[in-house]
Amino acid sequence: MTNSTASLSTKQLGVLGGMGPDATLYFSKLVLQHTPHACDQDHIRQKILLATQTPDRTQSILSNSHTHIQQSLRASVIELCRMDIDVIVAPCNTVHYYADTIQAAAAKTPFLNMINITCDYLSSQQVKCVGILGTTGTIHCRLYQDALEQRNIHCIHPSADQQQQVMEIITAIKSGDRSDTLSLQLLDQVNSLQSEGTERILLGCTELPLIAPDTSVLVDPMYLLAKASITFCCSKDPFKTITEDPKDIK
């Protein structure tokens, strides 16, 4: 990341995390790594709420049972906003199905929408065909498909059998598996989508970057959200669209 931001931020970043916890830590590390700094005081102050008791996002979507999770999200967002934050982010793709609930609970505190940030980036790169790897909830509710198609970008996602395999990979990551075997299984899914003509492949679940293979075809929404967070907190143009190509940030 180029050092185009101010060296010192007075804004505070609110992170609605815990979905899952390891992904939240990964996101926080990205913000630390890519914030221009010369000393501790240059870093962005992060207020992180690990809302680990949030109901399962995919189960809520597939069962059409939204009341409990919406109540949980409202309570967590209100708690986070009491920490005197200037902006809120949620390092979880599937929870963006409830983006309106999050923004309503946040009131005047802006919510940086990772789905829109990612799709705007892909549009800026003039990508025409994107593969999507994510939870069954994310695929089912067309979080990325609708947003990408609005930008005239064609989408391809795994078959039903392959999607089950993707969910097994995600579940294994959540349980702590970081094995090479699991990474190879993810690579198989990447190769399958590439064989169908995709130009880039979205890691549309925040667990997937934790074991992702090193290949330039992958797009990590977590990186893009981290960059947008840094821009918001440090730049004079807080809502600037991300257009530069992400680098390997592991």
Mean of residue pLDDT values: 92
List the total number of helices. 10
Gyration radius, rounded: 17 Å
Question: Helix fraction?
Answer: 40-55%
Q: How is the main sheet built? A: 4 strands, parallel
Question: What's the N-to-C terminus distance?
Answer: 13 Å
What CATH architecture of the largest domain do you see? 3-Layer(aba) Sandwich
**Shape designation:** globular
Class from helix and strand fractions:
alpha/beta
Total DSSP E strands: 7
> Oligomeric form of this entry?
single chain
Total separate domains: 2
Strand order within the widest beta sheet: 5-4-6-7
Strand % is 5-15%
Key features of this structure:
single chain; 250 residues; alpha/beta; Rossmann fold; 4-stranded parallel β-sheet; 3-stranded parallel β-sheet; 10 helices; 44% helix; globular; disordered N terminus; disordered C terminus
Could you walk me through the main structural features you see in this protein, from its secondary elements to its overall organization?
By secondary structure, the chain is of the alpha/beta class. It folds into 2 domains: 12-113 and 222-234, Rossmann fold (3-Layer(aba) Sandwich); 115-221, Rossmann fold (3-Layer(aba) Sandwich), CATH 3.40.50.1860. The chain is 44% helix and 12% strand. The protein contains 10 helices and 7 strands. It has helices at 21-34, 57-62, 67-81, 99-106, 114-124, 136-140, 143-149, 160-174, 180-194, 221-234, and strands at 12-17, 45-50, 87-89, 129-134, 154-156, 200-204, 218-219. The chain has a 4-stranded parallel beta sheet with strand order 5-4-6-7, sandwiched between helices. It has a 3-stranded parallel beta sheet with strand order 2-1-3, with helices on both faces. Helix 1 (21-34) crosses helix 10, helix 5 runs parallel beside helix 7 (143-149) and helix 8 (160-174) runs antiparallel to helix 9 (180-194). The chain is globular and about 45 Å long. Mean pLDDT is 92; it is low at 1-7 and 245-250.
